[in-house]
Recover the amino acids of this structure.
């Protein structure tokens, strides 16, 4: 399990925000994924986990924050810089009024006002330079094929008018590959890697079962030899018996190809089996982050405890005694005095909390 701090960080997400009009789908989310690990992202429907994945692969233009892949910025939001400029202008107007009302001489007022104006212009120039750099990075990294996505719905994500071979080969063609024989052989190779046969290349998506369609989606992703796979609830639309097959397939491919995986799901039992570290999201916020074993052994945030209490077990005696924990933010938190931030309660274990909760969580872990 990757847990060495010196290991290479493949993907870093810093203060990611993705807003849709008044909806804050993702709000100030930060985490990193080390090369070769599986990072699980869990939470209820609508918590922002899928939006996070889509923002990383740039299906959305992010509102603010930065995303780095292999040390290079591949996406950056500009709203925060624009907001900084507006806030600085408002502060200047406030300072301007205070200077006018001060008992200083007119010469002193003029000198102070000139200095404030110069500071404002310098700050605005720096923020506009950041916006320009962010846009340049986004444009330069537009066609990054080293990150691929496996979508949740295997039916909707495949073009019904294209054959399986055409669907899988599309990425190679877009990248510029023109040798038809080479494309064909590569398609056959990845079909066999995902448990299908080369004869399937000439068929259409409607001729396959749900599990087979998802294997086609996996093949479409891995044909590009990516370093990072974003798997967006890849088994949620499948039968339970097929889910295990697809998870085992992803696990085999992970080790065979040296893949790093961002695994998005709402089923914690599946995530525990497959993930090295797990991040828990609630209403656009990352509320807890820890290794898989640590999270299940010592859940700290009330929402994480609520999720864990909902996992059924194949044990009648346990089920009779299992108590469902409900999470009510207004009841479970008091943020009237201090707002929460993501804090490291224990090495590698982060929780979204204020200082009072932080002290309480540390006491709980010390017992």
């Amino acid at each position: 399990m990757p847990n060495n701090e010196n290991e290479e960080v493949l993907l870093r997400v810093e203060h990611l925000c993705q807003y849709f009009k008044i909806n804050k789908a993702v709000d100030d989310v930060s985490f990193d994924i080390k090369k070769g690990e599986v990072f699980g992202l869990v939470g209820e429907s609508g918590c922002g986990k899928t939006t996070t994945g889509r923002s990383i692969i740039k299906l959305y233009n992010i509102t603010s924050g930065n995303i780095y892949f292999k040390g290079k910025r591949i996406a950056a939001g500009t709203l925060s810089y624009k907001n900084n400029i507006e806030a600085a202008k408002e502060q200047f107007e406030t300072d301007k009024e205070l200077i006018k009302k001060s008992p200083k001489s007119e010469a002193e007022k003029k000198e102070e006002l000139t200095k404030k104006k110069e500071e404002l212009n310098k700050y605005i120039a720096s923020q506009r330079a950041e916006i320009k750099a962010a846009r340049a990075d986004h444009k330069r990294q537009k066609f990054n094929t080293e990150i691929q996505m496996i979508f949740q719905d295997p039916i909707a994500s495949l073009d019904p008018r294209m054959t399986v071979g055409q669907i899988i080969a599309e990425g190679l063609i877009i990248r510029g590959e023109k040798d038809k024989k080479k494309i064909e052989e590569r398609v056959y190779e990845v079909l066999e890697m995902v448990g299908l046969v080369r004869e399937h290349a000439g068929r259409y998506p409607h001729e396959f079962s749900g599990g087979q369609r998802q294997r086609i989606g996996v093949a479409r992703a891995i044909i590009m030899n990516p370093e990072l796979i974003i798997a967006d609830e890849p088994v949620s639309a499948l039968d339970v018996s097929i889910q295990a097959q697809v998870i085992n397939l992803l696990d085999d491919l992970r080790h065979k190809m040296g893949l790093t995986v961002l695994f998005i799901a709402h089923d914690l039992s599946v995530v525990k089996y497959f993930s090295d570290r797990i991040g828990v999201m609630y209403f656009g916020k990352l509320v807890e982050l820890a290794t898989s074993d640590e999270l299940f052994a010592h859940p700290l945030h009330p929402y994480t405890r609520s999720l864990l209490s909902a996992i059924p077990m194949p044990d009648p005696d346990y089920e009779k005694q299992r108590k469902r924990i409900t999470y009510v933010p207004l009841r479970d938190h008091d943020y009237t005095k201090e707002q929460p931030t993501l804090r490291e309660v224990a090495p590698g274990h982060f929780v979204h909390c204020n200082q009072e909760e932080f002290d309480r969580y540390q006491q709980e872990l010390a017992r």
Notes: The mean pLDDT is 89.
